[in-house]
Amino acid sequence: MAKTDSTGSTWRYRWAHRQNVRRVSTYRGAEAAWRRRDDELRRLRALAADFQGSAQAGAGLPLELTGDEVVLWALPAAQLVEVRHTTVLPAPDLTVDPQTGPLRPRRPDGVRVTDAGMAVITSRRLVLLGGRGRRDWAYGRMTGLSHDPAAPVTLIQVLDRRRSSGLMLPTDAAADFRFKLTLAFADAIEQRGAVLAQLDELIAEHAQLKPFRPAVATPGQARLFARVPGGQRTVAVAAALALLVPAALFDSNPSDPAGGVEVAVAATPAPTPSAKPLLRRPVLTVPSQATSPKPKKSKRPSPTATRDPRCGAPANPLGYGFCGGTRINQPASEVCDWFDCVPQFWAGPGYLVQCRDGSISLTGGRPNACAEHKGVRRAVTV
What we know:
By secondary structure, the chain is of the alpha+beta class. Among the domains are: 67-99 and 108-189, PH-domain like; 307-382, no CATH class. 27% of the residues lie in helices and 20% in strands.
């Protein structure tokens, strides 16, 4: 079929098909990421509500329980670590952060492994049953607690020891251990409800970030530059070259070797005796660039004559630009038709920003915003 400019032309249908495939792929990736996070939050909420132990769970362990103490969790593969130097750890809190990044199976600097054995979380303490003996960390004596964000190491300070010590666990068990230790500590200080309220708040906030299904692109929405390989970028580069090449040729024109251009004006006829003598027009000499005086500075044009209404943003009917204003947390579904969106754009969450490579991302306000695109340049506003 021949290519025409009508809405029924072949290239317009191909453009609409590519747009719909890309939009659906981006939406599905964002929805899958959102659903994984939602499932994890709800799993933690159910675990926090039902987390409890029993005296029978400690049967067979070489650990003597005191009073109403019960075993909540046990892991046979744990290492005892100690800090070589005296440190001050932050006070224990009830913060739940299920979004920690992947942990690497490494030991941080300044930390040494001194024993290995079974880690046990009870309702009153954390215990390591090691080959060299037993190490206890009672919740009532804890003054500091820190989870390493890059390694599966948890350090604890207690009143009766000068140096910090703790546990190093397998990477796949560290997140579960940290969450259950937080629950056990919350129970010890009678603050289980604070953890449940925090998880409820995280679930409610995450529900507001569910990605929207994108609108269907139609052939009638295709613009003419979609026919050019590279699309809008190619058109912009070609337009810039069309302006720069003539300017470069004009600037490279050599100056007049004579040092100037003499503009001669035709001589006026000789005056008659009865007529008043006419003034003779002088010969106008244009000095060369090397000897010409500095021109006077012209008045700057008014700001309204040169101001870009979008401050460098592509022309778009959405009113989006870089001039400052209101941040955009829920952009229009057709934003990627006018701007160059990063892959997995709708995965968000955050507000709309432009990365340093020119693309736009929906991760504004997050620590890893535009991490794979040279960082954040500025916010997209309306």
